[in-house]
């Protein structure tokens, strides 16, 4: 028999989700059978798989020890770089300025040095994250941006913050703005672009259509901030956040991003001498319309990055055809 006391960062989770994270060797079939047979109890009483845990609950688990081995800690994040550009930080969350070239989560091309591992290393070394003291929670990213996109990424330091921020993002109560440079002059000073986006996993590419049913609905609002030397600087209000949405949507209307080799034209990029895509998640506004509980202090807070590389170069007139 094993007893576990539920900690604040584990509160609010379903019992089955918590057990799956805490005991990685515990087969799902055995877990659900034990719950049905009352071999797993909360505070000495029966508990259902879907019941949510509260801080201080004591779980009594009557199962063999070999399936209740909590994974030995392997601090993979300690191999990540210490480099971290922090835009804002408080006890609940962080805003990070991710550079071009850094991925947010491990993938086939890079496992060790990722943004989330840099965050976890930073918090561990700061004494705010102790993996040994947590049953199942680890600091996590709320949103993500592509490897070749720079800008603001939100990180949650607590389970409560993660749940609230995920909910706010889903409800579109966090307004996300991007800066980008596109080729050509936009037809209007400001407009709402709509369409349908279909993702091809094998190609790691998306396709835009105007026909309903050919993908997921997307909406991209742009405002022209300036025009110079055959390119336009745009503010993008991302109303839906689909894979490669900004890049593919603007390319589909004849205005690909400067430096984008996937959806743009390499001959144009060569003429301008730009080798990385001009896209940055540069502004966040918290516009809560529902209760934000512990994060209500963020209401109407706005965070904007200064010194976006291509915006500065654009205003200086440095982005122009080389021949």
Are there runs of 5+ residues with pLDDT below 50, and where? none
Oligomer: single chain
Chain-averaged pLDDT: 93
Tell me roughly what share of residues is in helical segments: 10-25%
Q: What is the total tally of β strands?
A: 15
Please give the largest β-sheet: 11 strands, mixed
Radius of gyration: 23 Å
Form type: elongated
- Could you tell me the strand content as a percent range? 25-35%
Order of helices and strands: EHHEEEEEHEEHEEEEEHHEEH
Structural class by SSE content: alpha+beta
Distance between the termini: 75 Å
The helix tally amounts to: 7
Summarize the helices and strands and which ones pair or pack:
Layout: E1 2-5, H1 15-22, H2 28-36, E2 40-42, E3 45-46, E4 58-61, E5 86-89, E6 93-98, H3 115-126, E7 140-141, E8 150-156, H4 159-170, E9 174-183, E10 190-200, E11 205-209, E12 216-228, E13 231-238, H5 245-252, H6 266-272, E14 279-286, E15 302-304, H7 309-315
Parallel strand pairs: 8-14
Antiparallel strand pairs: 1-4, 2-3, 2-4, 5-6, 6-8, 7-8, 9-13, 9-14, 10-11, 10-12, 12-13, 14-15
